[in-house]
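Collaborator request, handled under Task 6.
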Amino acid sequence: MKTWMIVLFFSIPSIINAQLQVDFQLSGIPVFGVGYEFMDHLKTELRIGTDVFLTDASVEGILTYDILNKPDYEFYAGLGVRFGDFAGFVYPIGFNFYPFEEKKFGFLIEFAPIIGNADVLRGGLGFRYKFGGKTQ
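Structure tokens returned to the collaborator:
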């Protein structure tokens, strides 16, 4: 099932006009993410847990929708699935802020309840960078 989700995650955005982005969130359960923004308000993201042994790494697949999408900030909510430690459904709610003139590098704050094997509320601060494509 993991392989199927990873293939789906990377194949669908590659056939439509998308913008690649990466982020890193610092928290008690830190993650590194690679995502695609497409259709102005939708983003898919594959997240991998960090600060763990490679054999213990967790993987998340997330789909978010920008409720507010302004040049300087975005407010989003979404749904995802997490495999590995704290496996279950993930409900990310977050805010991206782009303070610089070129809207590629920004900061984020996110709260993500993880409901499943163990119910966890992950909160994190992080950084996001958008490669190429549109910058609003």
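The cover message to the collaborator said: "Residues 2-130 form a domain with the Porin fold (CATH 2.40.160.20). Helices lie at 2-14. Please let us know whether this matches your experimental observations."
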